[in-house]
Known about the structure:
The protein is an alpha/beta fold. The protein has helices spanning about 40-50, 80-95, 135-155, 170-175, 190-195, 195-210, 230-245, 270-275, 295-300, 315-325, 335-340, 345-350, 360-365, 380-395, and strands at about 10, 15, 20, 55, 60, 95-105, 115-120, 130-135, 160-165, 215-220, 245-250, 310, 330-335. Strands 3, 4, 5, 6, 9, 10, 11, 12 and 13 form a nine-stranded parallel beta sheet that branches. A two-stranded antiparallel ribbon has the order 1-2. Helix 2 links the parallel strand 5 (about 60) and strand 6 (about 95-105). The longest helix is centred in the middle third of the chain and has 20 residues, at about 135-155. It is globular. The termini are far apart. About 50% of the residues are buried.
Amino acid sequence: MTPPYLAPSRIGSLSLRNRLVRAPTSETMATEDGAATAGLIRLYGDLARGGAGLLLTGHIFVRPEGQCSPRQMALHHDRFIEGLSQLTAEVHAAGARIFAELSHAGSQTMMPGLTPLAPSGVASAIYPGAPREITEAEIEEVVAAFGEAARRAVAAGFDGIHIHGGNGYLAAQFASPLSNRRKDGWGGDSERRGRFLLAVYDAIRKAVGPGVPITARYGVADSAESGLTLEEGLARLETLVARGLDGVEPSLNLMRSYKENIRPYVGVSAGRALRDWVVPRLWEPEGEQAYYLPLAHAIKARVGIPVILVGGVRSTDRMAEILDSGAADFLSLARPLVREPDLPNQIAAGRRGMVDCVSCNICLMHDGYDALKCWRRDPRDLMRHALWRLRQATGS
C-alpha cells in the first residue's frame, strides 16, 4: 500500500505528485538587491529533484521597505522575473510545483538603515528598532504591491501564490490588537484589523485570476495574552475561504520569541542528543512533534479547506497518523529538508522512522549572514559556527 504522504493530491486546480511540501525557509542566497542567483536556482532544483511535491519559497519582499534580511528574494520590479523564470523552470523539469511566498516584514526587519513600517508605532518583541506608523496611502500602496508581485510571480512561471500572513510580519501585525492600535479604517475592531489581509488576498486574486491557487501561512492566534484570539482568527479565516483561498498553513500570529514558531530539538531524546552531539538538548526539553496540530484541528472543525501542517513533523509514523486522521491534507517540512533535500525520495524508496534533522536551529541562526545549509553535516562547519557565535558574543 502507498503511504498517505506519498499519494497524489491537489490544491485548487493544481495536481501534486505527493503530499510532502517544502516549507518556506529564508535562504540568504539572492543578490544584494534580491535577484535570483545560480546558487538559489540550484537549491530549488535540488529540492525538486529530492522528491517533494510542492515547494514554497522563502518569503519574497514586495516593496523595498518590506525586506526582512540581507540577500532575501525580491519581486518589487519586473527585472526580477528573468532570474525567477530560470528557477521555476529548474523545478518544473524535476516534476515538482512551486508557489511564491509573498511578504512584507513590517517591523520585523534586520536591514541596517531601514525605518520599519507597522500598523502602529509598536516595537516587535523579537526584532530591535521602533517602527513608524504606516499611513493610509502607504497601506494602499503595499496592498497594490502584493498584487503586482503576484502578477510577476505568475509571469515567472510560479504555479501559485503563498501569502505570508503570520509569524509577526506585517499582515500579522495588522491582525493583532497588540500591534494594531489604529482607530481608522484599518484598525480598532476585529473587522478593521482583518481588512489588510483580506485586501491583500483580493489584490492577488485580481492579479492572477481564478485559476491560480492561492494559499497562506496564516497566523491563527497570538501567543501572548490579550492578543489575537483563536476565535477571531478562525472567523477571519472563514471569510478568506469564502473569498476563495485554496489552502492554509496554520501558524502563530504574533510571537514572544522565534522559538515559539521554530521549536528546537523536536523528537530528540537524551540518548539521541548524546549520539549526535546535540549538547544543549541535555539541559533543554525535547520538542514536541507536530506542535501546530491543535490549530489544524481547530481549522478543520470550522472550514473545509486543505490544511498544510507545518511545525515539527519528524517521523514517518507521525506523518501517516496525521494524514489518516484527516487533521491535515499535506505535511510541510522546513529544517528536515535543509538537512536532507532528498528526504522525500528516501521515503519513497522505503525509508521509515525519524528524519536526520535534530532541530538545533543553527541553519536559521545564520539567516541574513550565510547561505542556507545544514551546519551539522560537516564537523568543520560546526567549528566555523562555534567561532562565528563567539565573535558575535564578544563583538570581535
